[in-house]
Design brief:
heterodimer; A: about 110 residues; mainly beta; about 55% strand; globular; B: about 110 residues; 4-stranded antiparallel sheet
Amino acid sequence: EDQVTQSPEALRLQEGESSSLNCSYTVSGLRGLFWYRQDPGKGPEFLFTLYSAGEEKEKERLKATLTKKESFLHITAPKPEDSATYLCALNSGGSNYKLTFGKGTLLTVNP
Amino acid sequence: NAGVTQTPKFQVLKTGQSMTLQCAQDMNHNSMYWYRQDPGMGLRLIYYSASEGTTDKGEVPNGYNVSRLNKREFSLRLESAAPSQTSVYFCASSDRDGEKLFFGSGTQLSVL
C-alpha cells in the first residue's frame, strides 16, 4: 500500500530563517510527486511536480527535491506570506484517482 | 479567470436531509474530481470523472452519488446526510488524468 508521511506536522519560523519540509513515501512505482500549498479556507494550489530521483524545481523562495524515498520542500529566507499548509501527494498509477495525499505541514512564518 | 467554482461555500444539514454540491470549471478540462478533507487526514477521493459521460468511484464513495452533467459541470449528491459526512469538500479538475489538479475553494458541510 502506498504511504505518504509529512514531517513536521507544524513548523514555526522567523522571517528569513530557512528550513525544509519533508515528505517520505513508500510506493511500488512512482509516477509523480506533487507539492501543493493550501491557505486557510481555500483549496490547494499546485506548486511542483517531480518525476524522478535527482530532479529539482524552484519557484521564488521554494525549491523541491526528490530522492528514491523522500522529497524535500526547501524554503529560503521565508516571508510571512509563505505561511500556509503544504501538502505532498504521490501518484503511483499515472492517474489522479491513485493520488495519495499526505496530512500536510502547517508552516507559520513570524515577522 | 474563475477556474473551478463550487457552491455553496457553507451548508448545515440535519441528519437524513439531502443536498447537491455544485462544481463548474471554465478551463475546458476533461477530468473532474470530488475530494473530502477531514482534520488529521489527507485529502481523500470520493468520485472522479475522467471524461464527459463517465464517472468512477474513488476511495470513499459510500453515501454519495455524482453526475457529470457536461464537460464543465460535476455535481456531488448526498441522498441522506449523516454526521460522518461532516467535512470540507473540494472539487478539482485537470486537463488530462495524471496531470496537476486545479481545486475549487471548497464547501464546508456540517451534518447535525
